[in-house]
Amino acid sequence: MTEHVDVLIVGAGLSGIGAAYHLQAAFPAKTYAILEARDAIGGTWDLFRYPGVRSDSDMFTLGYRFRPWTKAQAIADGPSILGYVRATAAEAGIERHVRFGHRVTRAAWSSEQARWTVEASRPDGETVALTCGFLLMCSGYYRYDQGYLPTFDGIGNFRGQVVHPQHWPADLDYAGKRVVVIGSGATAVTLVPALAETAEHVTMLQRSPTYILTMPAEDVIAVQLRKLLGTRRGYAVTRWKNVAVMTLIYKLSRRRPDMIRGWIRQMAIKQLPAGYDVDTHFKPVYNPWDQRLCLVPDGDLFQAIRDGRASVATDRVKTFTERGVVLESGTELGADIVVTATGLQLLALGGAELTVDGRPVRLPETMAYKGMMLSGVPNFAFTIGYTNASWTLKADLVSEFACRLLRYMDARGYDTCVPVNDDPTVTPQPLLDFQAGYVLRSIDQFPRAGSRAPWRLGMSYAHDVVTLRHGKIDDGSMRFSRGRQEPRPFGSNLTATRPVAG
Ligand SMILES: Cc1cc2nc3c(=O)[nH]c(=O)nc-3n(C[C@H](O)[C@H](O)[C@H](O)COP(=O)(O)OP(=O)(O)OC[C@H]3O[C@@H](n4cnc5c(N)ncnc54)[C@H](O)[C@@H]3O)c2cc1C
To answer: How high is the pLDDT of residue 446?
Structure first.
């Protein structure tokens, strides 16, 4: 007989472990399992192993709401974050619910049975099926098997080594070598100072500059608050303090971009050698927060440039040669190792295919409800974090809302909930209003957002606290039912067939 659980979580990364914590705290009697494609807990923080890997947002907001981050570092290294996620799973007894080596490929909803049948493939080729009442996708947002690599002319001619940060060879020896890092995002700015500690020289080769903001590696206010208020309350206050600071910077970036641009430029000038060409290498063409800001702890990137261990080339690759890279300007960068920090390939729902009563769910035809459920897809939620703040802020709220929804249904005897958009004035919009290349490359494979609440893309944590933690569950767009249910249309602006008053 097929095994059944009340809730099935897909993914044992930061989000999946957090979701399990919330779920078992709220419903000790509910059964659940976590299906994880890999053989380890931690997701991103287990996969990425390049030198210096670290968070690029502060740990007081990247940490869970329920588990204080107690280290002094505000920007933490990857192994510490992995340790934090694993300790959460171990201490809360979540580990034993994780089924490793289960890659979810399909999930089929039956309205008649009010349950999902979920199929997962195992490394030995076997397919395993489970059923569940509620499906929570915590599968992240990108492909694990492959990073993004643009086509570079002549790359096959290069005699040195080409490495992608997503597949960093554990034994790569870069000491005393000339390294070129292609890219200007969070990964590149992390890698450059880390490699520059032992490499002969590191060049960051970027097509165009990114906004880079120095922040103290340690949050002294957080340390004081912890002493004053104790671990839990100090953490809660620090979390809100950091939310407030990042929200202020974000809002000012939107309303007064020139002011923020000028402020970031002045900070860069102070940290770079006298006469440095700041405008060529550190003045982006877009406004702050059109793409994610890169945070660097204690300005380590600028320090490496000041020390002459690293430099920046703002140019384009013309071709690779045997010895290195020739740029469009004609300059040749000699290299022993080239690191292609060229980004991720986005992947929605971990590549799983969904059907509802036999009909395939085409994601671009669905609309995201509160940025966490899909129109026309019952008993289903997904976790995608903020682009302008730490991922976990949203992940915690998604789990909390899913628990509220389950409690609401339990109390009233419903077995099915489904968001339905039947308002013809709600117009579709991109799910991520973000200009980064990796988003623009694949946003058309993702669900849409809508022009109005609850379909509008929420990028404000404070607003989401109000709506997800405290807002009405039965808001008119969420439809509830018990027993057999007629199939509903997925798309926006389509009328629901049989709403049940809640
Ligand atoms: C290098 C790097 C640094 C980052 N730094 C930050 C930061 O500082 N701040 C921030 O807010 N965000 C950051 N992010 C975004 C980051 O991914 C999130 O912070 C967070 O780790 C996401 O957690 P997650 O559990 O949702 O997804 P992931 O960490 O991606 O974990 C998803 C898990 O689901 C599993 N999975 C996927 N598909 C399936 C499937 N079909 N079946 C079964 N299992 C599946 C994966 O194997 C994985 O274990 C960073 C991302 C990267 C790549």
So the answer is: 87
